[in-house]
Amino acid sequence: MVNILMIEDDPEFSLFLGEFLEKYNIKITNFQDPFLGLSSGVDNYDILILDLTLPGMDGLEVCSEVARKYNIPIIISSARSDSTDKIMGLQMGADYYLPKPYDPKEMYAVIQSLLRRIKKSGTVLVESDFTYDKSSLQITFKKQNLELTHAEYEVMLCLLSNTNAVVSREQIVESCESLSDSYSKSLDVIIGRLRGKLGEDSKNPKYLHSIRGLGYKLSQ
Q1: Which of 158, 153, 121, 155 minimizes the C-alpha distance to 140?
Q2: Of the residues 96, 117, 138, which one is the last residue of a structural domain?
Q3: Is residue 49 scored above 90 in pLDDT?
Q4: What phi-psi label fits residue 93: left (phi over 0), alpha (psi between -120 and 50 degrees) or beta?
Q5: What's the pLDDT score for residue 152?
Q6: Model-level pTM?
Q7: What is the pLDDT of residues 58-104, one digit of tens each?
């Protein structure tokens, strides 16, 4: 599961966004008070979503402090549309500035983009069960090399690059040269073969999950 720290003084908005992201296995923990948010263990979260208009402390100050002390991506989510705020936020360490109002799907896309960016460098360790190395086209599971076809490798790499998030059939097909039709049963066959190579129970999988009506998810 992706854990997100949110510092937002509008509880209805944070609840609305949290309910939308929850179906993609993304959990939001929101603090209306920026001081409580900063003392909540920032480095225990994967991403910070930060409002700028906050009680007692301006969001730009929060952004600067977090960027100075922690290695965590920062998304500014604010109704303040002045270009100066945007420029200052990015200069102070924010990775993205998303002006309100916005479709929650846009926030989901930004989160996915940041997670992919984090995982792009060379060999990536996911919890301890999987590693992958794009340079050698090798994926390991519990320290054992997985013997994969090219199509299986492409699908697995797509899911590993979006660990703990739901990936739609369309997203998988677009990222895999071996697949051409998101409605084809070939993707389901590949998922089935991957489950077999991971020793998964298809009725009660630990890693590869089918999310009805949405796509697939690799859990860790």
Answers
A1: 153
A2: 117
A3: yes
A4: left
A5: 92
A6: 0.57
A7: 999 999 999 988 888 999 999 887 888 889 989 888 999 999 989 99
The confidence score (pLDDT) of residue 126 equals 42
Cβ atoms of residues 165 and 24 within 8 Å: yes
Closest Cα to residue 117, out of 152, 73, 83? 73
Q: Are residues 113 and 128 in the same domain?
A: no
DSSP state of 181: -
Angle of CA points 53, 55, 59, to nearest 5°: 40
Q: Are residues 171 and 210 in the same domain?
A: yes
Q: Which residues contact 103 (CB under 8 A, 6 or more apart)?
A: none
Sheet holding 208-211, edge to edge: 167-168, 215-218, 208-211
Distance CA 202, CA 200 (A): 6
CATH number at residue 81: 3.40.50.2300
- What is the tally of structural domains in the chain? 2
HSE-CB of 85 using CA atoms within 13 angstroms:
18
Residue 187 structural domain = 123-218
> First CA to last CA across the chain, in angstroms?
7
Rounded-to-integer distance, Cα 204 and Cα 196, Å: 13
Place of tokens 């002006």: 99
- 22-34 pLDDT, tens per residue? 888 899 999 999 9
Element (H, E) at 195: helix 186-197
Same domain membership, residue 138 and residue 53:
no
What is the H or E stretch that residue 158 is in?
A: helix 150-160
Span 95-120, mean pLDDT? Answer: 85
